[in-house]
Every structure is written in C-alpha cells, then in structure tokens.
C-alpha cells in the first residue's frame, strides 16, 4: 500500500454524507489511505486534475477490478489507443452534433409524454414519477435497447452501480449485479438482428457497424447504462430539490437571468452524482511525500475535488451564480465522460425548463424531507413534492 497517512471513516456515515470526512482529509491528509475502503484516496482538485491525465501511472486498466469482472472490459477500463479507438467508434452516436440534431427532439418527446401523465395527486415522489422514467426512456433511445421497460433500465443500472461499488464484498449485491448484466445481454441479443438489418444512430447501432468485438460492444453498452441512467436521474431530481430549497436561485433560473446549463453545472459540482473513479497504480510513483506501489488501488474523489476550498469560495453552498468552470464532475482527463453532451441536453436543455414551466407552484412537502445518500454515486433516494393542478 502507499505511504499515505491512514484515515478511518465510519462507512454508514460516509454513505449518508461523505463531505465532512472529505473536508477533513483535504485539510489534514489530502492523500489518505482509508482502511475501510482498502484504497488510497486523492481528495484535492489539483492532485486529481494532474493525476488523471497521467495514464502511465494512474491506469484505468484494472484486470481484477469490480467493473471488469462484473460488466466486462469496457472503454472506461482501457487506456491509450485501446480506449481512444472505442471512444471514436461510439462518437457518431453521442457527438454534440448528433445530440442537437437527433437526440434532443426525442428527449423533448419523452419529457412531454411523462409530464402529460403526471397528476398532483397528493404527495408525489418526483424521483419515481419523472426523473427515473425520463432518464431511462432517453437512455433506451441512446443505447438502442428500445425493447426494454424503463423500470428494467433503472433496476439493471442500479444493480451494476451497486455491484461495481461493492468494495465490502456483499454477495447479495454481487448477485443482483449478475442478474442485471444477464438481463442486458438478453436485451442486446434481441436487438442485434434488427439493428444489423436497419442501422441507426444508437450506441448499439453504431458499434455494430464497426469491427468492434461483440464482447466489447456488450461491455460498452453496460457501461453506458451504468452511468447513463443514474447520473441524469440523480442530477434532475437533485437540481429540482436544490432549487426548491433555494427559491431566490430558482427565480434566477426561471426568469432567464441564469441559464439552465449553469444551474446544472453548479449542482453537479455541489453534489457530484459520480463522486469517485478508481485507478490502478501502474508503476512506482511519488506525489510530494507519498509513495505508491505498483498495482495498488487509488480512488480519484471527484466529489471532494469539486468542494476544494482552494478553487471554490464557500464550496459547501449551492450557488447558481458561481463560476463552476473548474468543476470536474465529468472528469478531467482522457476519460472525460463521453456522454456529457447528451447529459447536458437531457437535464439543462429539456428536463429542467420543462419541469418548471409545466408544473405550476411545484413545492416540497414540509413534513417529508427528501433523503439523499451515497459517496461513489450520490443522489436523492426520494423527492416528495406536489404542485397545483
């Protein structure tokens, strides 16, 4: 293991709210070995911003890592040419141009249909009522797995997310992850003949037109589902919650004073839906006085970096007026989230303006506060709301 100082955490408390412990680490030990996680955590933005680009040291290739063993060897767990070749192969499906010209209209149709069906019948859990189905329906379109139910898309995504964050080795969590990947494989098998016959701009449709091995196609579809469902779902519900608890900032957004994209970027800084990315040390390395050994595991703590006091004034505050350009919620190196443009379109261009335009006097339920949890992946567990008919 590294020579970093040890820092103990209470795992349940860290899941409930990791930010106090991360703030202490940034102050006392910005590079710290956490025995409860069996990993060394990089917590400062500067260390992460530099290290993520050093792929010869902080390697994404982790043959024995949870993502590889549970989901297959996808582009997120490859470096250099192996990573870039697969990234280029999927680019036609998720490029900014394709998002603007093809996907945004479909996102709008999904949002309109779901909002049309919503009724303010007492207390509504907005995560389940809108954020979850909207994110899943958009992801069905993007992946090409339109044969899935949105409920399955969400459940299988969550099963994989829980599986690849299962650093304590819970066998029940691992079993749910295996069930999720089996379901996705079956959905892929069902769609392959149709998309080979009639290719489209979906991820599956685009990859089938390349010479990418089928095992890599499957692994990359699973990658898209694992991150492509929870991040927009959690960002939509979380940003709605943040704005409803900060009505002055909601007014800035609904009047057009602050763009919706800026609102989304600030939320993603404040509560990073993807709070961590693991790396494997590929060769002996030293950062300042901390030495790393080959093959040890390191966590790049994006959620901590985005609250680094050296770069953000009052970092624990949600403030849509802030310049959030130094946020690394989507990453900072060659593994910058390939779905970032689609995510921004879903959340900022479509979901947020539609929600606050359509649901009049949308408001929280005072006696039922929203619950939030997670550290590797963080989001609202529910969002009780109502609005005027």
From TrEMBL:
<dbReference type="Pfam" id="PF00067">
    <property type="entry name" value="p450"/>
</dbReference>
<dbReference type="GO" id="GO:0005506">
    <property type="term" value="F:iron ion binding"/>
</dbReference>
<dbReference type="InterPro" id="IPR001128">
    <property type="entry name" value="Cyt_P450"/>
</dbReference>
<keyword id="KW-0560">Oxidoreductase</keyword>
<comment type="similarity">
    <text>Belongs to the cytochrome P450 family.</text>
</comment>
<keyword id="KW-0503">Monooxygenase</keyword>
<dbReference type="InterPro" id="IPR002397">
    <property type="entry name" value="Cyt_P450_B"/>
</dbReference>
<protein>
    <submittedName>
        <fullName>Cytochrome P450</fullName>
    </submittedName>
</protein>
<dbReference type="GO" id="GO:0020037">
    <property type="term" value="F:heme binding"/>
</dbReference>
<dbReference type="GO" id="GO:0016705">
    <property type="term" value="F:oxidoreductase activity, acting on paired donors, with incorporation or reduction of molecular oxygen"/>
</dbReference>
<keyword id="KW-0479">Metal-binding</keyword>
<keyword id="KW-0349">Heme</keyword>
<dbReference type="GO" id="GO:0004497">
    <property type="term" value="F:monooxygenase activity"/>
</dbReference>
<dbReference type="InterPro" id="IPR036396">
    <property type="entry name" value="Cyt_P450_sf"/>
</dbReference>
<dbReference type="InterPro" id="IPR017972">
    <property type="entry name" value="Cyt_P450_CS"/>
</dbReference>
<keyword id="KW-0408">Iron</keyword>
């Amino acid at each position: 293991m590294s020579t970093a100082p040890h820092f103990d955490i209470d795992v349940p408390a860290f899941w409930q709210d990791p930010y106090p412990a991360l703030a202490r680490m940034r102050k006392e030990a910005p590079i710290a070995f956490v025995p409860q996680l069996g990993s060394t955590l990089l917590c400062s933005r500067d260390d992460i911003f530099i290290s993520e680009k050093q792929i010869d040291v902080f390697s994404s290739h982790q043959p024995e890592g949870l993502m590889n063993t549970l989901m297959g060897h996808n582009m997120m767990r490859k470096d250099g040419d192996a990573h870039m070749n697969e990234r280029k192969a999927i680019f036609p499906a998720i490029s900014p141009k394709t998002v603007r010209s093809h996907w945004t209209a479909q996102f709008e149709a999904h949002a309109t249909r779901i909002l049309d069906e919503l009724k303010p019948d007492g207390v509504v859990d907005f995560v389940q009522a809108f954020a979850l189905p909207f994110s899943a329906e958009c992801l069905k379109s993007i992946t090409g797995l339109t044969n899935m139910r949105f409920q399955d898309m969400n459940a299988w995504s969550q099963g994989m997310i829980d599986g690849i964050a299962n650093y304590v080795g819970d066998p029940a969590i691992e079993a749910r992850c295996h069930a999720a990947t089996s379901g996705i494989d079956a959905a892929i098998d069902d769609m392959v003949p149709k998309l080979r016959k009639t290719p489209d701009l979906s991820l599956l449709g685009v990859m089938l037109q390349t010479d990418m091995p089928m095992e890599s196609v499957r692994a990359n579809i699973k990658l898209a589902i694992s991150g492509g469902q929870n991040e927009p779902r959690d960002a939509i519900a979380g940003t709605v919650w943040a704005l409803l608890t900060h009505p002055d900032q909601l007014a800035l957004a609904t009047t057009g004073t602050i763009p919706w994209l800026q609102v989304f970027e600030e939320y993603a800084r404040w509560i990073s839906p993807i709070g961590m990315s693991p790396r494997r040390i590929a060769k002996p390395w030293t950062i300042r006085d901390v030495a790393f050994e080959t093959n040890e595991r390191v966590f790049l703590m994006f959620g901590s970096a985005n609250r680094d006091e050296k770069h953000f004034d009052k970092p624990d505050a949600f403030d849509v007026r802030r310049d959030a350009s130094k946020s690394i919620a989507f990453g900072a190196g060659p593994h910058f989230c390939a779905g970032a443009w689609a995510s921004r379109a879903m959340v900022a261009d479509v979901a947020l303006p539609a929600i606050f335009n359509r649901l009049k006097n949308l408001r929280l339920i005072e006696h039922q506060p929203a619950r939030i949890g997670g550290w590797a992946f963080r989001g609202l567990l529910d969002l009780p709301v109502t609005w005027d008919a």
